[in-house]
Amino acid sequence: YVDVDPQVWRDRMLAAGWTPHTVEHLARLWPVIAAAAQSNPDVLRVTGAIEEVTGHPPETLREFVRNRARPPEAAHAG
């Protein structure tokens, strides 16, 4: 993990083709998740909920990024 300045992250994601709405949503979501994890590390523990809901085991962050090398909007563009 490398802490990246939020504006630098936004600029990079927009340059990579992510929509402004998606970038803003994720930029606002991350501090909430980070604060929750600091106050209660169990918030980030892996449970069986993902597999129960999707029928597939959860992916690691590395797997998720590798499997989705393009931004979601580009992947669905055809």
Which structural class is indicated by helix and strand composition? mainly alpha
**Biggest sheet, open or closed, and with what strands and sense?**
none
Q: What is the average of the pLDDT values?
A: 84
Uncertain regions spanning at least 5 consecutive residues? none
Supply the number of helical segments: 5
What is the general shape? globular
CA-CA gap between termini:
32 Å
- Assembly type of the shown chains? single chain
Q: What is the CA-atom radius of gyration, in angstroms?
A: 15 Å
What letter string, H or E per element, gives the SSE order?
Answer: HHHHH
Write a structural description.
The protein is built from 5 helices and no strands. By secondary structure, the chain is an all-alpha fold. Helix 1 (about 5-15) runs antiparallel to helix 2 (about 20-40). The longest helix has 20 residues, at about 20-40. The chain is globular, with a radius of gyration of 15 Å.
Task: Write a compact overview of the structure shown.
This protein is mainly α. Helix content is 60%, strand content 0%.
Topology:
Blueprint: H1 6-15, H2 20-39, H3 49-54, H4 61-67, H5 72-75
Helix pairs in contact: 1-2
Key words describing this protein structure:
globular, 78 residues, mainly alpha
